[in-house]
Amino acid sequence: MKKICPKCGIVDKSHRCSKISNQKKRDDGFYSKYSWIKLRARILKEQPYCMRCLSKYGQIVDDKLEGHHLLARSEYPEFELEEDNIVMLCKQCNLELGDSSILDFELNNKDKEEFYYNNKKK
């Protein structure tokens, strides 16, 4: 299946974007902190599948799940451990959305929707 690169817009099924590959992710140790590990485990129990794949494609994907911040940590560090700011996504969906606070799927969760729209900068 062809995918659209979120950084350069190229449509291809095997495209590896140099803009993404060359980005240096900051390693501040956040994802190895006990508070994140505990929160991620709790959310994973409630959402044992990729929310984007289910909403956008009608598929249940439960492999290689990652916690995705609806409001990016880089823009909204005050919400990095806010449960309503995190959804489970498969690795592919998390890469496609990247470090962006723009969503391309319906959340289908009232609490998360309210949190997202009430806190997102206009």
TrEMBL record:
CDD domains: HNHc. Keywords: Endonuclease, Hydrolase, Nuclease. InterPro entries: HNH, HNH_nuc. The keyword Hydrolase applies. GO terms for molecular function: endonuclease activity; nucleic acid binding; zinc ion binding. It comes from the Bacteria. Pfam families: HNH (PF01844). Residues 50-99 form the HNH domain. This is HNH endonuclease. It comes from Clostridium perfringens.
